[in-house]
Design goal:
135 residues, binds cytidine-5'-triphosphate, 33% helix, five-stranded parallel β-sheet, globular, alpha/beta
């Protein structure tokens, strides 16, 4: 990989893609020249949240892949493998939403770690609840 360009990596489920997702991807991209996004696998979501995302893994990958500032996507299948994913992508910067504030400081020996404020008033969980009320 060309080290002349600064590489940013971020992670998320990006289920029922919304404006908060778009905002963080746009802001993450501003920290470098290339943005790689680890999209969590269906398996990982079932393990951590006890349910599969509404949109399937291939659908979530395809949506995020085609967001303008995204260079490429990969599947995140384990929260514990963040260090490996960062090394594999030669990351200079890890960007996470501040719901994860402090949780990834130990990765600072691999790359810069930046926490960005979440967009207020929206989340996938709230959106699903809102849609359910329309039933
Ligand atoms: N994010 C954000 N602003 C929001 C919602 C999410 O900046 N309002 C960011 C998260 O901090 C994370 C990325 O988007 O870095 C992916 O978040 P994800 O967990 O997939 O989205 P949520 O809407 O938080 O989903 P859920 O309600 O299932 O937790």
């Amino acid at each position: 990989m060309n080290k002349a360009s600064k590489i940013v990596v971020t992670f998320g489920t990006f289920d029922v893609f919304h404006i908060g997702h778009l905002n963080i991807l746009k802001r993450a991209a501003e920290y470098g020249d290339q943005l790689f996004v680890g999209v969590s696998s269906d398996r990982l979501n079932i393990e951590k949240k006890g349910r599969a995302p509404i949109y399937s893994e291939p659908e979530r990958l395809a949506i995020v892949q085609h967001i303008k500032p995204v260079t490429d996507v990969f599947v995140e299948d384990s929260l514990e493998l963040k260090a490996k994913y960062l090394r594999d992508h030669n990351a200079d910067v890890l960007v996470m939403g501040n719901d994860w504030e402090g949780k990834f400081d130990h990765l600072r020996d691999i790359c810069e770690v930046v926490y960005l404020p979440r967009t207020e008033g929206i989340s996938t969980t709230e959106t699903i609840h809102k849609i359910k009320k329309y039933e």
